[in-house]
Amino acid sequence: MKIEIRTREIKDGNRTIYLDFYDKGHRWYEYLNLHLSPKTDRLSKAQNENAMKKAIEIKAKRMLGIEDEPDAAKSNELPRRVFSDWMDKYLDGIKHNRSLSVSTYNNNSNLVNVIKAYLSYRHRPRMLMSKIDKKFMIGFFDYMENVYRNTKKEDEHKPLAPTTLHLYQRLLVAMLNVAVQEGVISANPFYAMERKQKFKKVSADRCYLEKEEVVKLSETPCINDTTKAAFLFCCYVGLRYSDVSTLTWGAIRQTDLGKVIALKAMKKTGKQVTVPLNKLAQEWLPERNGASASERIFKMTTLGQCNRAIHQWCDVAGIEKNVTFHSSRHTFAVLSLTAGGDLFTVGKLMGHTDIKSTQIYADVVMDTKVDAVNRVSSFFSQR
């Protein structure tokens, strides 16, 4: 990290003092609200010396990661809060709120980690919440998009996906709204940003298989039989990889209406779900062969290995789609709604905590129906 004190001339003839930060190819600035006068009288020289002395003190603090004390005027209006400490308390509140899902906590926790990484990157780990303004937001958004890399895997340092950027933006806005309600910041600076400075919502590309494609895959050999069975099983029950890979024989129960899968808690949402096992789903269950209730049904490889097997499988079947294991869940949703299932029921079967999540699939089904109507119209117009 390199920090330099620089100045530039402003309209009134004075020179404003700012810090020039440079680190690993990235540059940013911090204006200090300090000015140098071009006058040469004794008073002006003394004021200039004091301004430079103050700038040198701030530079030293930034090098050490020390935050400024709040201005006296502001300290009377807002309580002194260190942003990182406040975020820890905010997360703790989400964690103990039973009405919120596990995924809500995980997403907010990931956002907080990115914010702390940004504060460390800017050498301001103890930044006060009174410093959160429009410039902070613009700088943080630029950091998320162009600097930050997801390091969950040592061999893969990927940039954040557009959908993740929009998610973090939405969560940050909600977080700062709470801060305003608690009186620790005066206003949410997000609303002062221009539209072009914000992340746009990206329509999710939910790859799913049509009925004929599911049948085609069932008739096509796969290099991993367990992956094939588990994938097609999920096309009929809508489970995620994280749930089906840990599914045990004890989760399958016999009821008066037939066999069901009873999950005490989905991995992602922590929500209890019961899914009926239709005949097609049961066809892809392996033989139990006396396995105990605690034994896993599908002895699966990693998600990455499953997806590689699925890509090769689809190539052999002649399916030109970017199919992943999660496509089986999308397939279940679309086929269920196409067959006449209602949004509420399908959402319950999938463990959705918000009906809006299911509505996305309803839009896909509607697009399919509109396309079918248009094809019928085109057929009759040719006569």
In brief:
This protein has 383 residues and is α+β, with helices and mostly antiparallel strands. Helix content is 49%, strand content 13%. Helix 3 runs antiparallel to helix 4 (102-121), helix 12 packs across helix 14 and helix 13 crosses helix 14.
Describe this structure in words.
- This protein is 49% helix and 13% strand.
- It has a three-stranded antiparallel sheet, covered by helices on one side. It has a three-stranded antiparallel sheet with strand order 6-7-8.
- The longest helix has 27 residues, at 355-381.
- Helix 12 (327-338) runs antiparallel to helix 13 and helix 13 (343-350) crosses helix 14.
- Strand 1 (2-9) and strand 2 form a beta hairpin.
- It is elongated, with a radius of gyration of 28 Å.
- By secondary structure, the chain is α+β, with helices and mostly antiparallel strands.
- The termini are far apart.
The overall strand count is 8
Order of helices and strands: EEEHHHHHEEHHHHEEEHHHHH
Mean pLDDT: 84
Terminal Cα span: 73 Å
Q: How much β-strand is present in the residues?
A: 5-15%
Q: What is the helix tally?
A: 14
Helix percent reads: 40-55%
Rg is: 28 Å
Which sheet architecture does the biggest sheet show?
Answer: 3 strands, antiparallel
Structural class: alpha+beta
Low-confidence stretches are 72-76, 369-377
* Shape descriptor: elongated
Strand order, sheet with most strands? 1-2-3
